[in-house]
Amino acid sequence: MTAKQGSFRFCGWYDGHSEVYSIHLGDIEGAENVPVRVHSSCITAHYFSSTECDCRDQLEITQDEIAKRGIGIIIVLNQQAKDNGILATLHYKSVAGEVSYSATAYQMMGYPADSRSYLSAAFILKELGVKSVELLSNSHDKRKQLQDAGIAVVDRKSVVVENRPDLVAHYNGKRDVEGHDL
Question: What is the pTM of this model?
Answer without folding.
Answer: 0.84
